Amino acid sequence: MFRIHIGSITEQGLNLDQREDAAALPLLAAVAGDGVVSFIRPIHVHIHATLAGETVMISGRAGSEVRMPCGRCLEPFDMKIQTDFSGTAVPEDPCAIDPAAEDDIELTADDMDVIVYSGDSIDLADEIAQQIIMALPFRPLCRDSCKGLCNRCGANLNQTSCQCQRQDESSPFAVLKAHTFPKKQE
Ligand SMILES: [Zn+2]
Ligand SMILES: [Zn+2]
Known about the structure:
Number of strands: 8
Bound molecules: zinc ion
Number of helices: 4
Number of domains: 2
Strand content: 25-35%
Low-confidence stretches: 107-111
Largest sheet: 6 strands, mixed
């Protein structure tokens, strides 16, 4: 699953087309586990990899379709997500790395675009899962024109109109106006 075998990268490079259920990727399973976002299609990945010595240059595209609640009206809706990524994979093997250069690699290994691999294959599962997570909208909208919920009665204003006075909602003093203060008894 989302793994590149170094030995299969030819001079022309390697093209991979892979699918994996989100549940099989621990980071995405964790995201889906809170019940807010669900992946309704497998994660689909195209990867192109080329080799330069022991360094592997990777570029690709990952996509899926998710169901998540609208940030305004809270209704679940389906949305395609797609993200392009690129990175460089370097071997972990300390023998292959100049000790002076090793520090530099450790510093940059936290960057999204440097992947450290060991052995004869590169595991891209976490990398791809992170790309998918970053492609999720911070404030998803079911449509740009979503009217959201009435902040007084909670009605979904896409489906119905309520009796609340809409113009009052824009005023910060609306709450005060609606409130009847008890009269002091003398
Ligand atoms: Zn909405
Ligand atoms: Zn209302």
